[in-house]
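Protocol step 4 of 6.
Sequence for Merlin (Cinclus mexicanus) entered exactly as in the expression construct, tag removed. Do not edit the line below.
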Amino acid sequence: MSIRGLKKKQPKTFKVRIITVDAEMEFSCEMKWKGKDLFDLVCRALGLRETWFFGLQYTIKGMCTWLKMDKKVLDQEIPKEDPISFHFLAKFYPEKVEEELLQEITQHLFFLQVKKQILDEEIYCSPEATVLLASYAVQAKYGDYDPNFHEPGFLAHDELLPKRVLRQYQLTAEMWEEKITAWYAEHRGIARDEAEMNYLKIAQDLEMYGVNYFPIAQNKNHTDLLLGVDAKGIHIYSINNRFSPNKSFEWSSIRNISCSEKELTIKPLDKKAEVFKFFSSQLKVNKLIFQLCIGNHDLFMRRRKVDSIEIQQMKAQAREEKARKKMENQRLAREKQLREEAERAKEELERRLFQLEDEARQANEALLRSQEAAELLAEKAQIAEEEAKLLAQNAAEAEQERQRLEITALKSKEEKRLMEQKMREAELIAVKLVKESDRRAKEAEHLKQDLHEAREAERKANQKLLDITRLNYPHMAKYPQYSPGDSRDATFDKGSIKLDLKDIDLKRLSFEIERERLDYLEKSRKFEDRLKELKSEIHALKLEEKQAGLCN
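Step 5 output, structure tokens:
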């Protein structure tokens, strides 16, 4: 067979783009493929075995619908585009996520879809619950909180809260991050799949979780109600309240659901109960409601039957996988704990080493400072020793000077005392001399008086003698050549001797008086000179004492 023949036999294909919540894939499909063929291909590519929850959704003429599994893809009313886009989404929701979602991929896809519905406000969630859910989403994405790694601002590019909540509370992004991080820090040790499961367990309790809403009317003219289909049954809501249904039909209480044109009929299991009929705006909406009712009812009944061998195997595998993951997580937790302990021990050792190095550095610096201080102290000691020697020398000199001054002072005192004594002696001498001078003056006066008296007596005696002579020898006056001397010598020999002796005594007395006077004058002159010398010495001593006082 030629290559050309092989080419002719190759089937024609068309391209499709499969969009999951977090990824896109492209496939080449054969023209004859049915919806189930494409769906199985996608499930195999994803490794998904719990296929009954999912479907391929597309949008045509503004209405979302699901690809039918039993019809060819190209025979269905799909968008005319290349490649044809389909969204791989959860079509039916479990009643209890923890029991029904067995595969990790199934759980992850549900987590991403429910999270998107909450952020897009398709599922209402209170602000407090959104913060808690956001913390589990952060745990699933970033793992355990590490303050050294997850610094402020690390959630700045993550969409974690609905815009309604952000508008409702006037908080900054930093405040929201702080609130989320406070919860996030408490989830330490929770693995990604556990965090996602905790997220879904909280979300499944929300009133709008897993509910598909459709506008309906109790008559053909008004659309004033909402019909909701979920895993538990069919619910009727007022147009403005999607939380609390006005009426509910559980799957276990429904006997039959029929669809014709725009009318949908719900027949309760109790035949006496009223049959509920409602109308939708389009036939396609009725068919979509009918498909969802059939699918949810089938799953509801399936959950209450004994699991098939395939489900049992999947559950066993899931349990084994969970046990394995649990052991693996425990092992990883232990290893992580050991690693953290080792890191802490390493950090402690590094800190201790750094501390020891720092202490060693400080010790070396202290040693250097001590050496420098020792050298400085040695220099200071040497200087102090030299200063001490100099001070000792100065002290010795000062002591010598003090002793000299004391000696000088003693000498000065002694000399002063001697001088004072000499002065006192001189004063006494002066007093004595004055007294002696007075005495001598008095004696001289007496002597002078005596001399005067003696001279006066001599004069009188001479006068008397002359008178006597004149009386006895009058002729001598007439005869001057006659000398009566011999006669006087003969007649008055004894009286002449007496006069001569008296004259000699007078002369001698006068000479003694004159000599004593000269001696007194000489002594007075010497005494005055000595007094002057004493005064000069005393003045010099006083000047020396003043200079010594100024020097001290």
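Step 6, annotate. The CA atoms of residues 257 and 266 lie 5 Å apart.
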